[in-house]
Amino acid sequence: MRETQGLIEQHIHGAFGIDFMKCSKDELLNCAQLLAQNGVGAFFPTVMTDELEIIKERISLIKSVKKSQDKKSAQIAGIHLEGPFINPEKSGIHDKKYILPLDINKYKFIEDDIIKIITLAPELDISGEFVKYLKTLNIKLSLGHSLGHNLSDMNQVTHLYNAMGAFSHRNPSTCVSALCCDNIYIEIIADSLHVCDDVLKITFKQKSPEKILLISDALPLAHSNIESLIFAGQQIYNKNCKLTNKDGIFAGSSMLLCDIIKNLTDKSIVTFEQAINASSSNQLKYHKLNNNLKVYWNEDNTINKVEFI
After folding, report:
1. Are the beta carbons of 80 and 10 closer than 8 angstroms?
2. For residues 110 and 96, what is the distance between their CA atoms, to the nearest angstrom?
3. Integer Cα distance of 4 and 97 in angstroms
4. Sheet holding 303-308, edge to edge
5. Distances (CA, A) of 285 to 106, 119, 189, 236, 278
6. What is the CATH classification number for the domain harbouring 44?
7. Per-residue pLDDT tens over the stretch 256-284
8. Which of 45, 92, 157, 278 fits as disulfide partner to 178, beta carbons 3.0 to 4.6 Å?
């Protein structure tokens, strides 16, 4: 049996039938306990594009739960704000009617020190003042749901290859910039659906291993028996573990990080150690977090048990 640190999930919308955009405090606490059972030591609940009043309410609820948590669950490390300051041309399943221009005053309406990651489209910040303001705060800036490729003011990119300009050998693109920039972290959903196995292999060969951040981008459908639900204002369907809306647009993952680690290692895309580093060690260093969990793994790359430190 192998022992590792707890996994760190920095992009997750929910699981076990629990939606972070709708859940109660008790449901979020319950989700944190269930995540710990699945090897997650800390996570960043992801608040997505919606009315500013709803975003503000979600931030307040998550902050309240963070303060009330005991040490026997996955710890809320902060909030990942995915939208509403994104490019409507790469909205994915984000509701376009709630996407906003990059306006400092609009951000200040929801501003809170629990926000630790923001996904945004910096190419829409024409004056540069929005990004300049965010850089004065203790926030990781992530280019995502974007058509931009200038990463000079960014810390990372959101779910590489998804909701961004396509890889091109003739023109600059987010994908190429992210793979080439040694100081940029990349999120990647390695479920073999959002990114195919060959591209996963290329990514792990090309990108500095300490800059890869495995994420689940899990939806409430993950680890549940629910076949369909309303998420982001639309019906989302689970068809053979592929989560899409009625138009076939991807809506997140049905896997958690432990499942993604098993997927990668069972297929020999990466070693077990590489998968753990990209799910734990890199995030702990990146976010300056302390590990609070020991995870014990079976030889078949499934979790045997967890212990809180």
Report:
1. yes
2. 19
3. 43
4. 2-5, 293-297, 303-308
5. 31, 20, 20, 35, 11
6. 3.20.20.140
7. 999 999 999 999 999 999 999 999 999 99
8. 157
Q: How far is CA 93 from CA 141, 203, 235, in A?
A: 21, 25, 10
DSSP string covering 34-82: HHHHTTEEEEEEEEESS-HHHHHHHHHHHHHHHHH--SSS-EE--EEEE
Residue 306 tokens read as 């967890």
Distances, alpha carbon 261 to alpha carbons 85, 213, 270, in Å: 31, 12, 9
Angle between helices 52-68 and 25-37 (to 10 degrees): 60
CA dist 201 to 61, 164, 265, 268, Å?
A: 39, 20, 12, 9
Tokens of 103: 């306006």
Looking at residue 209, its pLDDT comes to: 96
What is the per-residue pLDDT across 89-110, written as a single tens digit (0 to 9) for each?
Answer: 999 999 999 999 999 999 999 9
Tokens of 100: 């906003």
Residue length of the chain: 309
Question: Could you tell me which residues come within 8 angstroms of residue 191 by beta carbon, excluding any fewer than 6 positions away?
Answer: 216, 241, 253, 254, 255, 259, 260, 263
Range of the domain at 88: 2-308
Name which of 308, 215, 194 is nearest 259 in CA terms.
215
* Residue closest to 34 by CA, chosen among 188, 218, 212, 191: 218
Helix (H) or strand (E) holding 307: strand 303-308
Q: Which two tokens stand for residue 236?
A: 């989302």
For residues 21 and 54, the answer to whether their CB atoms sit within 8 Å is yes
Using CA atoms, how far apart are residues 13 and 198, in angstroms rounded to an integer? 27
pTM (2 decimals)?
0.96
**Whose structure tokens read 């972070």?**
20
